[in-house]
Amino acid sequence: MKAVFSLTQTIRFLLVSLLALATASCGFHLRGNYMLPDDIAKLSLTSFDEYGQLKRQVESQFEMHGIDAVPPSETVPNLHLISESVSERTLSLYQNSRAAEYELTYTVRYNIVVPEKGTQAYTTRVNRTFLDNPLTALAKSVERDMIEEEMRQQAARQIMRQLARLTAVFNKLEEAELEAMLNDGADSTTQLSEPGTATP
């Protein structure tokens, strides 16, 4: 029984070691809850509102996931927050035709620039429902502010998830560019190898 237990421990140790080696070899490291590429171990953050709450939420995510926030530079990847907005859509009405329930949509637009790889634009949306009680105007205002803050937090987490997928996105772009170059090269070779018209 003791030998079986030792064998199980050994196998478990080997599996963990292999997983660690595989993770290290593909250029990823565990940072917080996401697998973030080495390309963004250092990242600059710029925003349409340098002192806004959204930027603070993203900075907090940087700290949580071990990303060094550095000043903008041509050699450093950049996350640029372009804009944020909140829109609402009526979901239900009171008997007097006043809106009773809204769906709030918080939208963030941002760019990720990685030197020598390119730029990608993204849009993140977060939806929440909100009850409009006309008898509690002050409480309603406070509740809405809290909901919007929660949506900012979720949007910041979604931005981090997108960063985790960044390497795969740029790898696909590089593969598409390489394939296009190879196709262009093949077309040129075909044109050059076509026989010319013989002169009598």
Question: What can you tell me about this protein's structure?
Answer:
With 200 residues, this protein is of the alpha/beta class. It has one domain (27-186): Double Stranded RNA Binding Domain. The chain has helices spanning 2-25, 53-64, 137-164, 166-193; strands at residues 28-31, 34-37, 42-47, 68-69, 78-93, 99-114, 118-131. The protein has a five-stranded mixed β-sheet with strand order 4-3-5-6-7, covered by helices on one side. The longest helix is centred in the last third of the chain and has 28 residues, at 137-164. The relative contact order is 0.12. The model is unreliable at 1-5 and 23-33 (pLDDT under 50).
What average pLDDT do the residues reach?
78
Q: What's the name of the CATH homologous superfamily?
A: Lipoprotein like domain
Largest sheet: 5 strands, mixed
Shape category: extended
Strand percent estimate:
25-35%
Question: What's the count of strands?
Answer: 7
Order of helices and strands: HEEEHEEEEHH
Helix content: 40-55%
Please give the count of helices. 4
Neighbour order of strands in the largest sheet:
4-3-5-6-7
Might you state the CATH topology name? Answer: Double Stranded RNA Binding Domain
Rounded to an integer, what's the Rg over CA atoms?
26 Å
Detail the poorly predicted runs. 1-5, 23-33
How many domains is the backbone divided into? 1
Structural class: alpha/beta
Protein name: LPS-assembly lipoprotein LptE
Function: Together with LptD, is involved in the assembly of lipopolysaccharide (LPS) at the surface of the outer membrane. Required for the proper assembly of LptD. Binds LPS and may serve as the LPS recognition site at the outer membrane.
Main location: membrane
Subcellular location: Cell outer membrane
